[in-house]
Design a protein that fits this description.
alpha/beta, 10 strands
Length: 294
């Protein structure tokens, strides 16, 4: 320890320069705690305000989906091109190396398979496990209009409560049953309910008619779900429209890892999301990268 007489008197107080109070870049998140904001800033690129999430959690209810048979071979090479990966704790522990530094969105709801009623889920992963695995967010499925709608909503609110206690955001994933009408009215209802009850951001599907009313009426960020596999240009077009109509990113799985060239596709998606690249230009980029890798 230095002696008191060796300590130099402080002089540079910059009394003419006021402190700056930085507003947080993400919609609806300015009042959150520092840790919560820091985790969200790992998921969403602070420069673009958007995210490319790579969803590989399909196996928790439907087993080894095409393209996810070997996550170590098919998915790990894609991971560096994503802003964050959405996955289960089993895949994280068994396959993803601890040296991986991108953010993790951990699937925490579950309990039923495609052989049963999917909406009958519970909380399958506790908050302590999310802390141990250094999750940047926790994903909970919400089945608005489903048989177990109430239970799924309560699952989400419980994770919001626990996550808020420890500074971990909750992602509400809106699920659409086969008999539900996929229109703007439904998605406005589903996303607004999730936001009103505390979800920090929401994953939902794109619709061609009225998607901008869904994003504008939701007070927290919306990330577009990729859904079923589409031709590459169609998937890039869907992503572009979603971004231009207010989405804060995309969470794609099958449209990336089932692509003919997944590494090229995830980079093309990134160009659309972060650089506002048109679908046509992004498709050109995809073909260029695909030919380079063959």
């Amino acid at each position: 320890m230095p002696d008191a007489d060796e300590i130099k008197e402080a002089k540079k107080f910059h009394t003419d320069v006021p402190y700056k109070t930085e507003g947080f870049f993400l919609k609806g998140s300015n009042s959150l705690d520092w840790g919560m904001k820091n985790r969200l800033a790992r998921i969403f690129n602070p420069k673009s305000g958007r995210t490319v999430m790579l969803a590989i959690d399909h196996g928790y209810f439907q087993g080894p989906t095409t393209g996810l048979e070997r996550v170590d071979i098919n998915i790990l090479p894609l991971a560096p091109y994503a802003d964050t990966i959405m996955l289960t704790r089993g895949i994280l522990r068994s396959i993803v190396p601890p040296s991986f530094t991108k953010s993790i969105v951990l699937r925490v709801s579950g309990g039923t398979s495609i052989l049963k009623e999917l909406s009958n889920e519970a909380i399958a992963v506790g908050i302590e496990e999310s802390i141990r695995l250094n999750a940047s967010a926790m994903a909970v499925q919400v089945f608005i209009g489903g048989e177990y709608e109430k239970e799924s909503i309560i699952n989400m609110t419980r994770m919001v409560d626990m996550g808020t206690r420890y500074g971990i955001p909750t992602l509400a994933v809106t699920a659409v049953g086969r008999d539900m009408n996929r229109d703007a009215r439904y998605f406005r209802l589903a996303t607004r309910i999730c936001a009103e009850l505390g979800a920090h951001y929401i994953k939902t599907y794109y619709i061609e008619d009225g998607f901008e009313t869904v994003t504008s009426s939701c007070p927290v960020p919306i990330v577009m779900a990729g859904g079923k596999k589409l031709p590459e240009l169609d998937a890039l077009t869907m992503a572009y429209r979603a971004i231009q109509e207010g989405a804060s990113g995309v969470d794609m799985g099958r449209n990336i890892f089932q692509s003919e060239s997944p590494i090229a596709m995830i980079q093309a998606v990134g160009a659309v999301v972060h650089d506002n690249e048109t679908p046509e230009k992004a498709f050109e980029l995809y073909n260029t990268l695909k030919n380079r890798n063959t």
